[in-house]
Amino acid sequence: MQIQFFLQNINYIGSSCLFVIGLYTVLTHPNLIKKIIGINIMETSVFLFFVSIGFVQGGRAPILQTSGNEAVQYVNPLPSALILTGIVVAVSITVYGLSMIIKIYNAYGTIELDEIMQIRSEEAND
Amino acid sequence: MKKLIMFTALGGLLFIMISSYMQMPPMGNVDNPSYNEVAEYYLEEALEDTHSPNAVAVIIMDYRALDTLGEATVLFTSIAAVLTVLVGKDPKPGEEESHHG
Amino acid sequence: MDDLIVRNISRMIIPFIQLYGIFVVFHGHLSPGGGFPGGAILGASIILYTLAFGSEKGHLKLPHSIAKWLESGAVIWYIILGLFGIFAGHVFLTNKPAGFYMGQAGDIISGGFIPMVTLAIGIKVASTMITLFHTMIEEEEH
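The joint structure predicted for all components is written out below.
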């Protein structure tokens, strides 16, 4: 029963694993670009979860048939359409974060967060 | 020690997520609550309403076209923000004090 | 990047990438794809050109002066298409009741304003990707 549960919901479980991996990357790496990569992994996990909700066993892609009248089961088109918006927002956030990292590198000469904190504390003590 | 706390917290998060999937309807079932009358309306009426067979394109370009206009606005805003941040002169190290105000 | 293999392979495959991107954009209402994936493919072809041939030659393919017109024009074209619905007595962004040519389902020219909107979105996404990449590349070279 347990094996069947895991096999049946493999997309949900995979999306959870991806989410945890992305959160681990964001929390533990001091490198800012690796943090951006972690945020992207988390976004991908959310997209995978959302699209998996619309999946139907044995369903076809929602390209409607213009001829023939046998009944065909399609997958749910609504999550796929909504996730397109999410992908665009993810790209925008990634690009903006990368541009901020370029500015941070110009200002501090490094993109390691702990070194930036050290430089800032030295500046504050002076 | 720090790593142990991290792994415990993230493992607990993963456990909570997977245990919550046991309460959800199984994946790929037609009777799922997500496959409701909205999706069925789109699949049944899209061909008559818009004469184009791609249901996803019909949703994003016709039924929810205002949403796509907002999406284009998000792209426009992002490129404006990136150009604002990147294209411009850095303050000289000596002049930094006067810009702080 | 000054590499003979990369330059020659890029020169060979870039036309096919662009042809595929245009195909995806124009068949957005008939087959899987649409404005966003097609625009991303078109943008990726120019990004590949910039990576292979350098920033100066890549920048000539889509200068900022043209890109800003493309981006603003795509959004304005989208809004004008939506205003047709208001002039026809319906709500913003109405398709079939506003009197667009619907055609036969399955043809290229069909589906009211869906192909036109897809074209606008494709141009917008391609131009945005290329401009963002060029901006970041130029910033690193300074």
